Amino acid sequence: MTNIVILTGAGISAESGLGTFRDEGGLWAQHRIEDVATPEGFARNPKLVHDFYNARRAQAAEAVPNSAHLALAELEAKLDGQMLIVTQNVDSLHEKAGSVSVLHMHGRLNGALCASCDHRWEAPLRMTPSDACPACGATSTRPDVVWFGEIPYHMDQIAEALSKADVFVSIGTSGEVYPAANFVAEADHFGAHTIELNLEPSAGASRFAECRFGPASEIVPTWVQEELAR
């Protein structure tokens, strides 16, 4: 029985057409993070923030999983043991690929949150500042995503999973955003074998016991097949 925890970042979805922070000309490049990804930005201009996430939501709705997402779903289905995907991504490509055990530590584009009463529900494709919460009626609806300065979701569950992991794999992450950047140290502390699968070395590549570099659509399926052949 093998217990695997996998962290995924923007790099795994990039080949499905969903841009990263650093893509030139992408959605992020057209806006300041302070304006569209902070509570303060939302307070200043909720329409701008909703328009930004409406565009991201529409883009994500059209995206399809690539071979890396599909390989992880296959691994979960066939693994003799347990597997958990912890994703920093707010798209649903892991679920579209068939993965079941997925924790979205930064929330989900297809989720809506009431800033007044914390009620959550499935977001419509387009959200506006005038949308009323179905629970309390307040017009303080926001995307259910974790913005800069906010605490990521599911941290207790993630910590417990890392403490039990035999293998920890980081896929497509920059290694610069905490607390996720420290997961490798936590997993290593509890004795897990740590692996980085990335397009290029991350900021924390030296902290991993094993590293493989290349497009996620190529190196992830290869690693999965090796793991299933054990």
UniProtKB/TrEMBL annotation:
Main EC class the enzyme belongs to: transferase
SUPFAM superfamilies hit by this protein: DHS-like NAD/FAD-binding domain
Localization of this protein: Cytoplasm
Residues bound to Zn(2+): C114, C117, C133, C136
Cofactor mode of binding and number, as noted: Binds 1 zinc ion per subunit.
Enzyme Commission identifier(s): 2.3.1.286
UniProt superkingdom: Bacteria
A single GO molecular function term of this UniProt record: NAD-dependent protein lysine deacetylase activity
UniProt keyword annotations, A-Z: Acyltransferase, Cytoplasm, Metal-binding, NAD, Transferase, Zinc
Record: active site: H106
PROSITE patterns: SIRTUIN (PS50305)
Principal cellular location given in the protein's record: cytoplasm
Residues holding NAD(+): 9-28, 88-91, 172-174, 198-200, 216
Gene3D superfamilies, alphabetized: SIR2/SIRT2 'Small Domain (3.30.1600.10), TPP-binding domain (3.40.50.1220)
Pfam families: SIR2 (PF02146)
Catalysis performed (reactions): N(6)-succinyl-L-lysyl-[protein] + NAD(+) + H2O = 2''-O-succinyl-ADP-D-ribose + nicotinamide + L-lysyl-[protein]; N(6)-acetyl-L-lysyl-[protein] + NAD(+) + H2O = 2''-O-acetyl-ADP-D-ribose + nicotinamide + L-lysyl-[protein]
CC cofactor: Zn(2+)
Domain notes: 2 residues (Tyr-53 and Arg-56) present in a large hydrophobic pocket are probably involved in substrate specificity. They are important for desuccinylation activity, but dispensable for deacetylation activity.
Protein name (database record): NAD-dependent protein deacylase
Source organism per UniProt: Cognatishimia coralii
Organismal lineage: Bacteria, Pseudomonadati, Pseudomonadota, Alphaproteobacteria, Rhodobacterales
